[in-house]
Amino acid sequence: MVDHNVIKADKEALEPSHKLIYAYIRYYRDRKTNTTTISWDKLVQYTGYKRDTINEALKRLDKYGFIKKQKSIKKGRNSGWSYNIFTFPDQDPSNWERINLHFLSNKHITKEEKAFILLLMPSLLPNDCIGSLTKPVGPVQISEIIEVSEPTVRKRIKSLMDKGIMEDYQARISGTCELEIVGYKFNMEKIMYSAADGLLEQVIDLQQQLFETTCHAPEDSYLSLEKLRQHHKVSGQTDEPNAL
User: Fold this and answer.
1) CA torsion angle for 11, 125, 96, 155 (degrees, to 10)?
2) Which pLDDT does position 99 carry in this prediction?
3) Is this prediction's pTM over 0.85?
4) What is the mean pLDDT of the chain?
């Protein structure tokens, strides 16, 4: 889940890329400790952003109190291994946007498109639409809502429409049979539930990394992960595991 305060933070505080990076870090939070443990390599691999961008995002997120970052070193089997520990402040759960790993790992949506979708989520109606007869929404209004330039908004809308993820939203004019375009509708099934490619391996990688940073990891941890891989190959299941 992603805090609405993060999503709605103005551009001077957080860039769209910073908000998406937060979504990745937040997803892998250990609910018991309220922390996420992840290496730089995994952050780069999973987010698709360069280290400089991630580093700037972490500085901003820390500055504005959305996360607290610590850097720790734990000796691995052959050499020192660097990883980051992030803690999260307590938040009001009513002000969250639910984000799942299917969305974060969706290879058919670029990181720029994911950031665009994330920025719009707090403004979506229950029917996954933005805009209505009384308050129509177009690129100009979206640009104002999410503080992204109008040309960029138009570019994102076009690319998502080409992929069948967005479409024009039509509403019926009261007392007539006429339909009028008043905004956009998102295909949440394609956004949230059609990203099985590489999903299990990504979760397994994070689980294995967590075990390596835990002093008291159970002896059969790696065996359990191998069983999970075999189960996936046999059954083809892609159910989302609990967040770490």
Assistant:
1) -30
2) 83
3) no
4) 80
